[in-house]
Amino acid sequence: MKFTHRLAVAAVVAAIAQSAGADTVKIGILAPFSGPFAMYGTQFKQAIEVYQAQNGTSVGGHDIELIYKDTGGPNPDVAKQLAQELLIKDGVKYLGGIVFTPNAMAVAPLINQSKTPTVLFNAATSVINAKSPFFVRTSMTLPQVSAPMADWAFAHGIKTVATAVTDYGPGIDAETAFTKEFTAKGGKVVDAIRMPIQTTDFGPFMQRIKTEAPNALFAFIPAGAPAFAFTKAYSDNGLKAAGIQALGTGDINDETTLEGLGDASIGIITSHHYSMAHDSAENKAFIAELQKLHPGAVSNFASIGAYDGIKVLYKMIETTGASGGEPAVKSVLGMSWVSPRGPVTIDPTNRTVTQNVYIRAITKGADGKLENKEIDTFPNVPDLGWAN
Asked: How far apart are the C-alpha atoms of 372 and 149, rounded to whole Å?
């Protein structure tokens, strides 16, 4: 009896020792969970839940605690304040998320000072990673997806284009990369329109483009309600009927708003690094788990940025634990894996993933629902804006 008691006590002591030895590493996630861009926060959180369902909530003996903060949208002052709270009050050792370029720029000085590894799930202006050696990006950059669109368009008989982009970092990157590639091929840009980020009425811009009658319109608008309104305005103002082909990055017709666009959107062509319709075992497994956790949910580029982003954060923590810092960033440089989007590698120089860029057309799938069908692939595209 005494022997049994001693065994029980020893087991309890061992359990306590094991518990004491397992530390908790906190990750702060910055994203909009309210307002017109709240879909990003939803996609981020759902994708992280999928990853943890598949891989657990600990890595390398470290329990993972996630702390979510709502930035509400492109609010650099709010992003900076929340990042400070996470680093000082909450004691996070790693950051992730961040949708908008101004927010990333506001956070950069803080992570430089604290040496906090930060994985960008979205924020897609090329120059961001130059602002801090602690940024690693698992999404894409606008030059990375815009230049292939220009190549594809010219090769398919489009010779004149009007560009229309949201007037901030990513939009300017998209416009610059597309224009440079398109004109180098011999194409002509007949108009370059930059629209304030608060724009909700795109009718006047559409009428202007319709009057100019180019072969195509190339656009970048941040995903969410504004992109939905822009794409709808393209059809409502008769550009499709006039034979002006809609081209853009995948933000303008991501899966969260795709079905709402209706059949009038069929034939819109976009370039991006992910489609929910991507045919691979990895993507099917991701979507199956997403449906299990959140029936009826869709996956989009934000989902994949977060899913791969948390994978990178897990690798950092597995390697360096709570110490983080420069060794954590170095541990993932050159890291390669097969994502639900396809093969990816973290470029050791610019710390953005090199990946396939897909040309997608809105079509009806076998289930009768709209989808972004991949019709062409540009393999292993790096961040084409890094050296510019």
From this structure: 15
Closest CA to 371 of 382, 360, 380: 360
Outline where DSSP puts E strands in 170-232.
188-195, 216-220
| Strands 62-70 and 24-31, bridge-based pairing | parallel
Maximum separation of any 2 CA atoms in the chain, in Å:
93
* Strands in 226-334 per DSSP E: 245-249, 269-272
Give, in order, the Cα–Cα distances in Å from 350 to each of 33, 260, 305.
29, 37, 17
Return the structure tokens found at 84.
């400070």
| Fold of the domain built from segment(s) 142-272+357-381 | Rossmann fold (3.40.50)
- Domain ranges (residues) in the chain: 10-140+279-351, 142-272+357-381
Rounded to whole angstroms, the Cα distance separating 137 from 336 reads 13
- Which architecture does CATH list for 10-140+279-351? 3-Layer(aba) Sandwich (3.40)
Token pair in block for residue 375: 């019709």
Alpha-carbon distance of 375 to 332, in angstroms, equals 32
Nearest to 313 by CA among 84, 117, 128: 117
The tens place of each residue's pLDDT in the chain, 388 residues long, gives 443 434 333 333 333 333 334 599 999 999 999 998 999 999 999 999 999 999 999 999 999 999 999 999 999 999 999 999 999 999 999 999 999 999 999 999 999 999 999 999 999 999 999 999 999 999 999 999 999 999 999 999 999 999 999 998 999 999 999 999 999 999 999 999 999 988 889 999 999 999 999 999 999 998 878 888 898 899 899 999 999 999 999 988 889 888 888 888 899 999 999 999 999 999 999 999 999 999 999 999 999 999 999 999 999 999 999 999 999 999 999 999 999 999 999 999 999 999 999 999 999 988 899 999 999 999 999 999 986 6
In whole angstroms, give the CA distance from residue 143 to residue 133. Answer: 20
Residues with Cβ within 8 Å of residue 153, at least 6 apart in sequence: 161, 182, 187, 216, 218, 247, 269
- Beta-carbon count within 10 A of 238 CB: 12
Look at residue 19 and give its three-state secondary structure: helix
Same CATH topology for 10-140+279-351 and 142-272+357-381: the answer is yes
Length of the chain: 388
Q: Which helix (H) or strand (E) holds 79?
A: helix 76-84
**Gap between the terminal Cα atoms of the chain:** 76
